[in-house]
Each structure stands twice: as C-alpha cells, then as structure tokens.
Amino acid sequence: MTTVKDIAKAIEAIAPLSYQETYDNAGLLIGNPQQTITSVLLTLDVTEAVVQEAIQGQCQLIVAHHPLIFKGLKSLTYQNWVERTVALLIKHDIALYVAHTNLDNVLQKGVNAKFAEKIGLNKLQILQAKTDVLSKLVVYVPTSHAEAVKSVLFASGAGQIGQYSHCSFTTLGSGSFKAEETANPYSGTVGELTQVEELKIEAIIPSYLCKKAVQAVSEVHPYETMAYDCIPLQAEHPGVGAGAIGELPEALGVSEFLTLLKSKLPIKLVKHNINEGQIKKVAICGGSGAFLLKKAMQMGADAYVTADLKYHDYFDAEGLLFCDIGHYESEISSLELFYEEITDKFANIAVRFCKTNTNPIQYYF
C-alpha cells in the first residue's frame, strides 16, 4: 500500500523542501498525506483540464512542477481558474504535490540535469551556488566511541564536500562535568567533578539533515546527555543552486548549436541575439533565468540557454549567444525526473504523463 506521503518522501529525497526559494510554495498543497494511491498523473502545470484528465484516469495524486497555489487564497468562490481548480481537486479527493524551485536548485537529478542530458552537456556544475543550506555538526565524544559516532554521522549524510565523502576534523581535548544526584553517568562519580579525555568531531552536513543525524548519533553515543552543536554556515553548496554550466563534447558553430537545441528539445523556435563564434561551454537554466546572465558571462559561457527574456536583456549579453527557448519548453522534460523516481521505488503504482498541453503560449507560423 502506497500513500501520498510515500511519494512525497521519495521526491524530497532528491529535492528537499528546504532548498526551495523563500517566495515559493512547494510540497503537498492539497490532500491527505495518508491517502492510499494507485495512480499518479505528472504535469508541469495544474489546470481544470489537467484535473479532468486525472479524474478520467482515476488518479488519486497529481505531481506538478509549478505550484497551483502561489499566493494566499482568501476564498473559494470559483471566481478564477485557480479557485475552480482547487475546488475540483478537493471535490474529487485528488491530492496535489509540487516540487518547484527545490527541484530547480539541485544539480543531481534536478531540472537542469535533465536539461543538460537532453543536449549532451558534460562536466556539469552549478552556475550560482546557494550559501544558506549547509551546517557544521560538532559532537563531543569519549575516544572509545569516536569511530562509531563517525560512522553514524557519515551514514546520516554528513561529511560530503564536493567530490569527497567521509570528511571530518577531529580535535583531542578534555571535557569536564559533575553529575547530579539523579544522573546516571557513563563515567565518573555522582557529585564529583570529573575530567574525561574526549574528541571533538566536526563534519559538514546539509542543514535539513541535522536533526536526523543528531538523533542517529545519540543512539550510539554513550553519554546520558550528549553535547553537540549544529552551526549554520555561509559556505557555498557545490550541488545546490540556480542554473548549471557544462561543456559540449565538441565545439559547434552558432547555426549548428541552434540546430542541436531544436532537434533535442521540444521546441518550435529559438529566440536569440546576434552572435558569432564557436559554442563549447554552455550555461542553462530551466524557466526564467535572465538573472543569471552576469554569472554565466563570468564563468566563461559561450552560450546561455533559458527562457522568459525581455527585449533589453539581449543587449546585455555581450560576447555570448543568449537563447530563449520558452518557459514550458525548457522545463517539460523535467517530468521525466518524477517518472524515474516514482517508478524506481514503487512498482505497484501507475504513473502517467499528462496529455493536456498546459503551455499558455502558442505560436503562429
């Protein structure tokens, strides 16, 4: 039996909710986490037509990239498409789960990873790393239990720095305490000041994993009351942030590169500036990415592919091929991420791609 909560947990394993931007509204937006599901519908946007498709397909859960509820709803009076869609979901007991900027902001198995895979980029790295998602977990432990504590720390997600795992720093020192009458100390005597040789173990950890790691360590730590710190850091997380940049297997001319985009992505046209030269290093950002132009230029990109560019944005892209392929078109392939994660973990769930085209922008040729 699979529940909405199970699906949410699987998605959040690759795109933690803490990685979403402050303005966002990702997560379970509608529905009971304990509801049993047998069928899931995947979509970029949620509209009335999408919900009707879910009803016809007997889907109990819709997993979407764009939040249906973005601003606060003060009423449900069917006055606009958002209110009507929310009401329709509730009426038919269909849950809605959203992974938005949290899925944008992860390099591995994120929106830009799928984007890069489609056009053949390698040596992929984050374009603008986030600086508020890491902490330093510090645990004080007697030398006899140091290795057991380290082992649990690493198993809980601590100690990963770039391409290196099991990273930690250990300092030898002396700890002191006096156990009170009701205490049951691991060492020392109640009522007496005790000095113990201890190790201070430090490891970097994603902040959202701190609570889980502390709980796991406490189960192998010998002390009745464990001393620890979890200190927020401003260090960049190399695997979390906006956009991505990588390299093509070989340099292409501008026309060849535009042809590559057209052949590998579900797009009808590419809007771009006037540019010449060879394209080897390519920056990408699914969705609205004009804010990353300067970063793409600083990192030496030959081309930057994103969406939602304004007229004057193109003037700022000096020495770089600046491409707008459309918001919907730049993100629709990310639904494959949902499909891969859900089908890999839940063999008993039917997973369907939405057949409704939710792109509000159409083209006339």
Can you characterise this structure?
The chain has 365 residues and is an alpha/beta fold. The chain folds into three domains: 2-102 and 333-353, Udp-n-acetylmuramoylalanyl-d-glutamate--2,6- Diaminopimelate Ligase, Chain: A, domain 1 (3-Layer(aba) Sandwich), CATH 3.40.1390.30; 111-129 and 240-325, NIF3 (NGG1p interacting factor 3)-like (Udp-n-acetylmuramoylalanyl-d-glutamate--2,6- Diaminopimelate Ligase, Chain: A, domain 1), CATH 3.40.1390; 134-232, Alpha-Beta Plaits (2-Layer Sandwich), CATH 3.30.70.120. It is 27% helix and 29% strand. The chain has twelve helices and 17 strands. The chain has helices at 4-14, 48-56, 81-91, 101-104, 111-119, 146-155, 210-218, 254-264, 293-298, 313-316, 327-331, 335-345, and strands at 2-3, 27-30, 36-37, 39-43, 61-64, 95-98, 122-129, 134-142, 169-178, 193-206, 228-232, 241-253, 271-272, 278-288, 303-307, 321-324, 350-353. Strands 7-12-14-15-16-13 form a six-stranded mixed sheet. Strands 2-6-5-4-17 form a five-stranded mixed sheet, sandwiched between helices. Strands 9-10-8-11 form a four-stranded antiparallel sheet, covered by helices on one side. α6 (146-155) runs antiparallel to α7. It is globular.
